Amino acid sequence: MKEIFEILEQNGRATPEQISTMVDKPVREVEKIIKQAEKDGTILKYKTIINWPKLGEEDIWALIEVRVTPQRDVGFDAIAERIYQFPEVYSAYLVSGTYDLAILVKGKNMQEISSFVTEKLAPLERVQSTVTHFLLKRYKEDGDIFHLPKEINRRLPITL
Amino acid sequence: MLNTKSTPTQARNKLISQKVTSLPPSGIRKFFDLLSSLEDVISLGIGEPDFVTPWHIREAGTYSLEKGYTMYTSNSGMLELRQELASYLELRYGVNYHPEYEILITVGTSEGLDLALRAIINPGDEVIIPDPCYVAYPADIILAGGVPILVPTNEENKFVVRATDIEARITKQTKAILIGYPANPTGAVISRKEADAIAGLAKKYDLLVISDELYARLVYGAEHICFPSLHGMKERTILIRGFSKSHAMTGWRLGYVAADRRFIQALTKIHQYTMLSAPTMAQVAAIEALRNGESEVEKMVQEYNRRRRLMVKRLNEIGLSCFEPRGAFYAFPSIKATGMNSEEFAEKLLLEEKVAVVPGTAFGPCGEGFVRCCYATSLSNIEEALKKMDRFVRKSRLNTV
Lengths: 160, 401
What we know:
The two termini of chain A are 36 Å apart. Chain A is built from 5 helices and 6 strands; from the N terminus they run αααβαββαβββ.
């Protein structure tokens, strides 16, 4: 069962027929498992990783450390929700260490990110401080390496 | 003094050993040249993993260079590595080898095989091998001064050599049986019962078994039979293994031989004069592979298994009947339905659809009617290649009607 999701995680376009062959289970069973997973939120959605810079679209990214004051009863969750609802926030995590929330923010330019920080994030009541790190280069994301030349052929065309 | 009157060809032949001159050239030389002249070929003909060596193993190799481990090791190989291997073999197969006297680190399994044959063969000794088999077996036997005796295998017995067929070919000159399961080119694995029967013969006729278990880790829903672990067989088995296929380390050239002390002594004698020691960097990397490489091996095996199922199913669907290979990373489908022979099939498929497979005849006469398709390539390559093969097979059917 886990194997079906591992395959889909690597290739969202793998068909139930292909998966059924690979894991040696009937197509119907595979279809049922996938349907169920789509329904119960095990599969959140199918998406495509685009290498935007190839299209000349260079978004600006920043990793922001946020220190916040937790709230009685709800801890960090309420303030986290206030923050991650902003569409500018791409990812948000509660972390251990010297700050509380790590958020990844995407903007069209530096201006957009700095106005998000100064006008929306920093003024929030429970936000104590922020430290913004602009990303200079992306090497690897979600397990995929970015600047890798596509498929270098290191092997001889035929070996016995 | 050189005879200046002889023609250049004569002189050349005279200068080359007769043994080498008489050795048949690789059966796929022509095919290889043809392949190299084409672009955008999807190759199912590559007999090595498509994975790069796991990073932690490469890193260990690199670090050994940084620390200056650039010298020879002992002839037998680093003791630390041999100790790791001894406990690995004991843990996995319950067979005990003394790390100091019963394990030799070699330059790939290729060297191990060569050493084993040279160490045991007297001129004219016969060594029994399955047909088809890995291309180096007959050549290495001939180079060692022996005579390869081919035992036919076929699809009906899933390309596993039968003890009765072996027994029929045993003579006074028979010295050893050389087998390799999981098998290249067929993907066949040997069952305990079949292996026991061969072990019985070895004991009955006082023969050695050279067991090439390079693909031991690549088995799918089947048990790997480690030959020396069979009852009474440790004393008469030369076990040959390596890291190339299990840990995707082909280019590191690292293998090992495990056997009774008297054999290892004999092999080491040749090894010390011809090779000195296996690459030090590769040995350090192999220690890391044994200590921390298990999860990576399992990941690769799982991936191969997915590809295997896909390839075998598709081959059968397009009408190239294929028994289920349970080891290595090869499928060995029959192409008889197309009316072509193996070489014709491979050459036409390459020219018409730009898909490379290896004609079964490259591995022995019994490979006729089959081709070797390697699934150590991406799923998308396998799908694409099989689409093309499907078109090719359908076209050839139309032509034969």
